[in-house]
Amino acid sequence: MKIGVPKEIKNHEYRVGLTPASVREFVAHGHSVTVQAGAGLSIGLDDAQYRAAGATLADSAPEIFATSDMIVKVKEPQPQECAMLRPGQLLYTYLHLAPDPQQTAALVKSGAVCVAYETITGVNGGLPLLAPMSEVAGRMSIQAGAAHLEKSKGGMGVLLGGVPGVAPGHVVILGAGVVGTHALQCAVGAGARVTVLDKNVDRLRQLDLVFGNRITTLYSNAHSVEESVLAADLVIGGVLIPGAAAPKLVTHDMIARMRKGAVVVDVAIDQGGCFETSHATTHAEPTYVVDGVVHYCVANMPGAVARTSTFALNNATIVPGLALADQGWQAAMRGNPHLKAGLNVAHGKVTFEAVAQALGYDFTPPDALLD
User: Fold this and answer.
1) CB 321 within 8 A of CB 91
2) Which end of the chain has a smaller Cβ tally under 10 Å, C or N?
3) Looking at 31, 96, 148, 182, which residue is catalytic?
4) Of 100, 233, 266, 270, which is the active-site residue?
5) Taking CA 360 as the corner, what is the angle to CA 72 and CA 275, rounded to the nearest 5 degrees?
6) Mapping DSSP to helix (H, G, I), strand (E, B) and coil, where does residue 301 land?
7) DSSP single-letter state for residue 8
8) Element housing 21 (H / E)
9) pLDDT for position 241
């Protein structure tokens, strides 16, 4: 199969779909790989490394899209990239379609076969291709939140860890999944006072066993969310419903009653966000203020640490990617229900139920397209 790796074009996105090591794996499996010149240069992966791994280089994205059977990316295709997709071409990347009707319509129109990293499931549960970026984003959420609590960045001027004689900042984490757990680790490490909320009491019990009286765990309901958010200096939104739009846990009214200069970091923004006041921002302009509360809603947070993120992502995506290339997407999915869960759009049909429900499309079960 001919594999194509275009350079990412989203604002301040420096990650790359395949590292030279991953290219070497595809070549060893008998596939040809074409990488756009300079695709990894910003993170220290130069063209010579890709050539040494067996890739050929192309000067432009249109050349990549025109000659490849399978496109491997990181972020969702931008409108000009969607326009270059063709019927039957395989797209393997993050998509986050439920809150994005424009992208979904473009992919349906293209006729391409679109496999989303974020909905591929794991043998032992979970979302193994989403997890590494959730780990990065969870850790970064505390880093970004702490920075924007500084007065010069619009915050109230609070040091998360406090100092002797002065109380530490209060961090509230909504969701105790991968994002929330990694945010929790960093917040505790910074010396903050931490409250974490989730509906899974077993998960809260696990965190309590690990962190003990260094954290407060609360069952998540409307009352506990409101009470915690209003008492917070920094709120991290890390909730997830796989493939679906994130629930709006924090209302505009709650935001209006928060402390002026408090910060919210919406890690769920790729799926529409879990604050009513959230809208996606970029690394170029990461924040905005609503009712005196600083909102950090960057839709590709891990892109800020692009080298770390690229290697972490490739560790997770290489095995399913090889299966798609080695067997073809239909054969690979017939024998692997976890990979089949990644099929979101194919041949003009929406094949992921949560996306179809969110955007009003007829749902076509993946099995209907695997004969």
Assistant:
1) no
2) C
3) 96
4) 270
5) 75
6) helix
7) P
8) helix 20-28
9) 82
Starting at the earlier edge strand, list the strands of the sheet with 70-72: 56-58, 32-36, 2-5, 70-72, 90-93, 113-116, 343-346, 349-350
Q: Provide φ and ψ at 225, rounded to 5°.
A: -65, -50
Cβ atoms of 4 and 61 closer than 8 Å: no
321 DSSP β-pair partners: none
CATH 3.40.50.720 fits 131-299, yes or no: yes
* Tens-digit pLDDT profile for residues 249-268: 999 999 999 999 999 999 99
List 365's β-bridge partners, or say none: none
CA distances 342 to 178, 279, 299, 317, Å, are 19, 26, 20, 12
Query: Which residue's entry shows tokens 């001027």?
Result: 157
pLDDT at 201: 97
- Active site includes 270? yes
- 371 labelled catalytic: no
- CA-CA distance, 200 to 218, in Å (whole number)? 10
pLDDT value of position 101: 96
Domain ranges, ordered by start, for the chain:
2-120+306-369, 131-299
The architecture (CATH level 2) of 2-120+306-369 comes to: 3-Layer(aba) Sandwich (3.40)
Measure the CA–CA gap between 224 and 221, rounded to whole angstroms.
5
